[in-house]
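1st attempt posting a full record on here, be nice pls
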Amino acid sequence: QVQLVESGGGLVQPGGSLRLSCLASGSILSINDMGWYRQAPGKERELVATITKGGSTNYLHSLKGRFTISRDNAKNTVYLQMNSLKPEDTAVYYCNAEIRRTYTTTYYGFWGQGTLVTVSS
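the predicted structure (as tokens):
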């Protein structure tokens, strides 16, 4: 089995910062791309940022400069540093990873359960 567990969400005032973490665990042989998505109330899930195994990054254009994605391959962990947070950043943030499990030859996408980020005064 493979699990992705997010942490670091919570309530923060506008202009504040949060750092999300997502740990992938289980019978993992290799991880390709990892990423963060978010879903605000009444809206569809959208891509926030992705990062390849080699460290190349891709961001939702409107978030570039405020959010930074990074990963620690040795720890199977991806991070999302969020600065200058705005009320419109309020959403459930989900971690995603392309994982090849042991004794398999294919990468599959896995999702975490989500962590709520609320930006409010």
